[in-house]
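Hmm, what's this shape?
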Amino acid sequence: MIGAPQNAALPGGAIIVNRVRGALPGCEPVCDAVESGHLSGGDVFPEDPISAGSRLLSTPGITLTPHLAGAGRQTATNAANILAEDVARPPRGEPLVHSV
């Protein structure tokens, strides 16, 4: 449903958020658009768990977060805290702790 033509129609710097499960939108057009600088990022998982060879793991500017729809409140809170702590590390010159 969303591919290269639809990405090109978005304003520069847009971020795609995938609100459904599965491969909508496809990750290849999103990776292309992020690499070209047209999109700022995307929230796209073609499969869960993501495969080790996925281009999403090697495209700069893509941030991957866990799927938490069925998680309890404490699990979601813990995941948010871990993510927030890790996102704050690079500006301080520190390496990421939780990365693939």
Notes: Residues 5 and 29 are 9 Å apart (CA to CA).
